[in-house]
Amino acid sequence: MTRRKKLSMLVIAITTAGTTALFPTAAQADDEQPTTRELLEKCNDGTDLCVFHPSGQPVDSMGDAHQVGDSAFNCTKDLQRSTVGWSDTTGETNTVGVSMSAEYGFTELFKVTITASYEHSWQSSHTEEQQTNVEVKPGEVGWITREAAMEEVNGTYEMHFEDEFYGHRIWYVPFTAKGPKADAPSTKTQHTRKMTKKEKQEHCG
């Protein structure tokens, strides 16, 4: 099944914001169907109505742990405290398949709809900079990992077109986005281990 055909909706009655509406069906719709991106790019550009209906509250989580900054190698015979400077940027992912920061019009639209739906701001990207200390024993290497605080939102865009768009005037577009949580601290962890022979040769030779 092609990507476009997957976007064809089942005929079911749903209640959205107190009104009953129908999804277009694969049988009723044309073979050519719009992609999620094509539909959302028309939001407020050819539509009488384009609103986001959240399916629940944002879900909080932590991003994957990954190293930030350089590794600190202790080639001395004494315990060393090294200060690792780092800068790390966390972006968002979404069902459109592109960075919302690269799609300025949709970025602003989405920020407005999320603010209205959840009464707090949405960040498409967040950069954190810090100096972090790590204590490294003789013959060991130390490094810092970071896990960003994330939030995921799920819902459906309800779109009413002035004229038919791909054979229909009403579309419901499922949408999911996951991005850095505004004003939430990330988790930083210090790690150490013994250097390998190759690392000793490269950094302590």
Question: Could you characterize the architecture of this molecule?
Answer:
The chain has helices at 3-6, 36-40, 104-118, 197-204; strands at residues 13-16, 19-22, 47-54, 59-62, 66-73, 80-90, 93-94, 126-136, 140-147, 149-165, 168-180, 187-194. The protein is α+β, with helices and mostly antiparallel strands. The relative contact order is 0.24.
Shape: elongated
The largest sheet, given as strand count, sense and whether it forms a barrel, is: 5 strands, antiparallel
In terms of DSSP E residues, the strand content is over 45%
Which structural class fits the helix and strand makeup?
A: alpha+beta
List the uncertain runs. 1-30
- Considering DSSP H and I runs of 4 or more, what fraction of the residues is helical? 10-25%
Number of helices: 4
Task: Give the topology string: H per helix, E per strand.
Answer: HEEHEEEEEHEEEEEH
Mean pLDDT: 80
How widely separated are the two ends? 58 Å
Total E-strand runs:
12
Radius of gyration: 24 Å
Record keyword descriptors for this entry.
three-stranded antiparallel sheet, five-stranded antiparallel sheet, 205 residues, 4 helices, 12 strands, alpha+beta, disordered N terminus
